[in-house]
Design goal:
Layout lengths: L10 H8 L21 E6 L9 E7 L19 H18 L5 E6 L2 E4 L9 E13 L3 E11 L2 E14 L3
Antiparallel strand pairs: 1-2, 2-5, 3-7, 4-7, 5-6, 6-7
Catalytic activity: a (3R)-hydroxyacyl-[ACP] = a (2E)-enoyl-[ACP] + H2O
Subunit structure: Homodimer.
InterPro entries: FabA, FabA_FabZ, HotDog_dom_sf
Length: 170
Amino acid sequence: MSSERANSYDYDGLMACARGELFGPGNAQLPAPPMLMISRITSITEDGGEHGKGQVVAEFDVNPDLWFFQCHFLGDPVMPGCLGLDALWQLTGFWLGWKGMLGRGRALGVGEVKLTAMVTPQTKLLRFEVNMKRVIDRRLKMGIADGVVTADGEPTYAVSDMRVGLFQDS
């Protein structure tokens, strides 16, 4: 891993992470498209956010040709809610790797998810905000965070107590 941590990442940087090049072999990776639910990370901090323990802000460019609109649902296309949650988990794991913690990220759960609006083919931009609440960096490596998703500026998801762990190959 490079000793220089950027405070934002473009799509090429996200793809470097997906290929395992950003944090080193065996460490946090983002999924590749079509499961990569992020177009860019606009801000990442170690001590920012609602709880002062770190924050990631990212965006996803929505277009009507995205794969999930073709099948979910026929004649009534909406983005599956689980994909927005997955994007928040992806960002939580990315933050752990960015922080220098070792291991492969895995979603471990979520306390509560509230979906208040739909993402449709007319939506242009999703904004994700992850606020770290607790970071455990012992034998157990885990981040606990809250997240918010807005679609074209309108609140769409609110998530509390997401948990992502890092696991090393044995």
